[in-house]
Amino acid sequence: MTMKNFIEELKWRGMLHQDMPGTEEHLLEKMRSAYVGFDPTADSLHIGNLVPIMLLAHYQRCGHRPIALVGGATGMIGDPSGKSSERNLLDEKTLRHNQECVKAQLGHFLDFESDAENAAILVNNYDWMKEISFLEFIRDVGKHITVNYMMAKDSVKNRISSESKEGMSFTEFTYQMVQGYDFLHLYRENETTLQMGGSDQWGNITTGTELIRRISGGKGYAITCPLITKSDGSKFGKSEGGNVWLDAKRTSAYKFYQYWLNTSDEDAEKYIKIFTFLDKETIDSLIEEHKEAPHVRVLQKRLGEEVTVAAHGKEEYEKAIAASNILFGKSSSDDLKILDEQTFLDVFDGVPQATVSKEDIDNGLDMIGALAAKTNFLNSNSDARRALKENAVSVNKEKVKEDFLITSNDLIANKYVLIQRGKKSYFLLNVK
RNA sequence: GGUGAGAUACUCAAGCGGCCAACGAGGGCGGACUGUAAAUCCGCUGACUACGUCUUCGCAGGUUCGAAUCCUGCUCUCACCA
Known about the structure:
The chain is 47% helix and 14% strand. By secondary structure, it is of the alpha/beta class. It has three domains: 6-225, Rossmann fold (3-Layer(aba) Sandwich); 238-329, Orthogonal Bundle (Tyrosyl-Transfer RNA Synthetase), CATH 1.10.240.10; 343-431, Structural Genomics Hypothetical 15.5 Kd Protein In mrcA-pckA Intergenic Region, Chain A (Roll), CATH 3.10.290.10. Strands 1-6-5-2-3-4 form a six-stranded mixed sheet, with helices on both faces. A five-stranded mixed sheet has the order 9-15-14-11-12. Helix 10 packs across helix 11, helix 12 packs antiparallel against helix 15 and helix 13 (265-275) packs parallel to helix 15 (298-312). The radius of gyration is 26 Å and the shape is elongated.
């Protein structure tokens, strides 16, 4: 089996931040195993985790074996990297639950199932860490690393010195040892010779290679990828609602797709290389196409498609497209009325709702009542009047005036009325 | 403890007896334009039974036909001096 040059691949995709000398040659020799750690602090990964996931996925496509390590043990300690304060600890039951969820999500990107030589493996460091006693650990592992070495790491320095008043517990100080031990363990058990991670993980990873060298006399390698930024300076992976999660229950496929679609032009060029498996020629021609007609947003659309299909599947992606067309396209009230109830609810998932009685509708519901008096969608009747005067209000996608009355003719699926203020705020009237 | 300055809407900040629901800026919202972007332009931004009425300018009283504006007390903030 010939290996595709993984380092080469990372370079043109802009995913290589640092690599340990000799890594490229090491990977070209034959199939190697590499791992990335995932933190099971929640029952879902978010798109911030997507970069390390893609590292593994690209790695597998280059012919190597990816290992996803769920940090059951390390998650109990908390990584001090980039954290200014002590972290809360999770109990074992929560961790186990989270691990199961994370595992399912990784399956969308990595091939765990096939019997190919380089099928992905999932491991949990709790499984080996729980057997080790404290005495054993400090004698067999701790003996090999000096405190001086550990103190020199940025993650530790930042917390102990300078303006940080919080200090750092012994537990967090130990973190790098525990993570380092993972590498040693995988090196011994699975012939894992490479650890990858975000650039903030460099310090932790090198503690691992150090342990491998000192204890086993072997050689471990390291690759880090840059932290993903957004050109406008805001944080990647956050929308108004908080994190963008991979779990559809937390972030609907529609919102997930929208997040990618709203990427700025500049970022889209970067992201399409990182978050999709498209080859260089395809991406180059897409970028070319995008430059000629930026308003068509081919880059954003393709990016959204690739990532959404990967994370949620083709069907969910198509629903997201349909929803997007309804919300942002030139859809009319007729388009809305065709929708079945379930699709309708999916599209307007998370939109504020209020219930009004059937009689109100039969008598004809005036717009002040629909917007404020009976529903509290807007803060006050004045606000409602203002919105109407501004020509901002639509019922079922059609602009209405102050004297409009909602009647049973306006019901969608016989029980809903869609009200809008402006382009972006939607309200759903539920008729009972 | 002493002296001085201040407290105005989401934020900053005018106003210092009637023309004040309160200038202006930022923010927010809406409209036009547009690519579901950026920039730009325009409008709105206390409430209500709405050409009018009511409640708001730290809190409580008072003077006056009339107070955010003047007086008294209180609370808090800031600056300077002990």
